[in-house]
């Protein structure tokens, strides 16, 4: 028990050391994961060759593979992992529930429907060409967000629980539409829709990265700016309001920031689940509830997680194996673990 000033100072020093160690270790893991993902593939390339290619001194063959194939894939995996992780952290804090994830507002389901429209009917293809699928996914993310907001809004304001229920209902509706489109689609279209919903980085290019880096960056920055308010809201909205927090404004910023992150991620990689559930929960157990530390750790940790999952997918099978399958296989047992060990938090 902390009873004296010396105890408080000692506690602060231990917390500071723990924070520095956690950030340092996560950063080291990020570098190692980056190199692993760059080295492993259909052709194994040594770390030395990777470094030489990155600084422009590698041979033509390995440089082409590294710079034109693997580097954009790695950058997209890092970007998507960071976006989904911080989105999950925000949703868990906003709804005060460790079971919350980026799909809690139905945004991912809306993105799947938008992508299905582009794949099935070629919406936007005459103007945008190959970018029609990510564009429609991105647009439907925000249409879904607006729809959920309108449904949850009443003359008394928007309650967090109502927002959650509206998101679940809208998400189920769009999932039904996607299933209907799969049912009526021909074989080629069906295969394309199903493959997109599995989540994969196989078609990621530098163009894909630049499409999503701006909205995801805006989303992450906006969520970073409200880290203090998220700390207070995590303890309870009434307490936060009593401490001077404008809960409605913070909630709106959180929802828009999360939507930007999820929209940017799903636009280039499809639907990848459980990243936003696993990573925030792991770091919250390690470092505690302070969002000032959780946000940078989740950004790096999400990038590490998807890099490792993508490396595992390439090493175990082939370049074409969807990484979303691996995250689901790992995420489902983790979801059960949370359900069994955190029952009190879930029902509170």
Describe this structure in words.
The chain is built from 16 helices and no strands. The protein is an all-alpha fold and 348 residues long. The protein has a single domain, classed as Orthogonal Bundle (ABC transporter involved in vitamin B12 uptake, BtuC). α1 packs antiparallel against α3, α3 runs parallel beside α9 and α4 packs parallel to α12. The longest helix is centred in the first third of the chain and has 36 residues.
CATH topology: ABC transporter involved in vitamin B12 uptake, BtuC
Count of alpha/pi helices: 16
How many domains, in number, for the residues?
1
Unreliable stretches covering 5 or more consecutive residues: none
For the largest beta-sheet, the strand count, sense and barrel status come to: none
* Percent of residues in beta strands: under 5%
Helix content: over 70%
Number of strands: 0
Query: Looking at this structure, what is the CATH superfamily?
Result: ABC transporter involved in vitamin B12 uptake, BtuC
Question: How much is the average pLDDT?
Answer: 84
User: What coarse outline follows from CA principal-axis ratios?
Assistant: globular
Q: What is the CATH class name?
A: Mainly Alpha
Q: Over all CA atoms, what is the radius of gyration?
A: 21 Å
Please identify the structural class as seen in this structure.
mainly alpha
CATH architectural arrangement: Orthogonal Bundle
For the termini, the CA-CA separation is 26 Å
Element-by-element helix/strand order: HHHHHHHHHHHHHHHH
């Amino acid at each position: 028990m902390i009873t004296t000033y010396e105890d408080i100072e000692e506690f602060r020093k231990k917390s500071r050391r723990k924070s520095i160690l956690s950030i340092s270790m996560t950063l080291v893991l990020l570098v190692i994961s980056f190199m692993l993902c760059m080295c492993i593939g259909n052709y194994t390339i040594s770390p030395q060759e990777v470094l030489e290619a990155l600084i422009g001194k590698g041979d033509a063959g390995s440089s082409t593979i590294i710079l034109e194939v693997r580097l954009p894939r790695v950058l997209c995996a890092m970007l998507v992992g960071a976006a989904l992780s911080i989105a999950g952290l925000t949703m868990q804090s906003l709804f005060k529930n460790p079971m919350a994830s980026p799909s809690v507002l139905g945004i991912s389901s809306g993105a799947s429907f938008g992508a299905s429209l582009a794949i099935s009917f070629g919406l936007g293809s005459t103007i945008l060409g190959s970018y029609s699928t990510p564009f429609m996914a991105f647009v439907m993310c925000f249409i879904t967000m607006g729809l959920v907001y309108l449904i949850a809004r009443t003359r008394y304001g928007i309650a967090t629980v109502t927002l959650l229920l509206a998101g679940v209902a809208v998400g189920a509706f769009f999932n039904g539409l996607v299933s209907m489109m799969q049912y009526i689609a021909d074989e080629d279209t069906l295969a394309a829709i199903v493959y997109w919903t599995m989540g994969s980085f196989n078609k990621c290019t530098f163009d894909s990265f630049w499409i999503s880096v701006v909205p995801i960056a805006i989303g992450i920055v906006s969520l970073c700016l409200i880290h203090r308010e998220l700390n207070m809201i995590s303890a309870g909205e009434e307490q936060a309001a009593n401490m001077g927090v404008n809960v409605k404004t913070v909630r709106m910023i959180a929802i828009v920031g999360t939507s930007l992150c999820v929209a940017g991620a799903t636009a280039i990689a499809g639907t990848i689940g459980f990243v936003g559930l696993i990573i925030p929960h792991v770091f919250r157990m390690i470092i505690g509830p302070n969002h000032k530390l959780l946000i940078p750790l989740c950004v790096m940790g999400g990038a590490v997680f998807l890099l490792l999952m993508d490396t595992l997918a390439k090493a175990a099978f082939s370049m074409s194996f969807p990484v979303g399958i691996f995250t689901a296989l790992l995420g489902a047992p983790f979801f059960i673990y949370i359900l069994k060990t955190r029952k009190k938090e879930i029902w509170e």
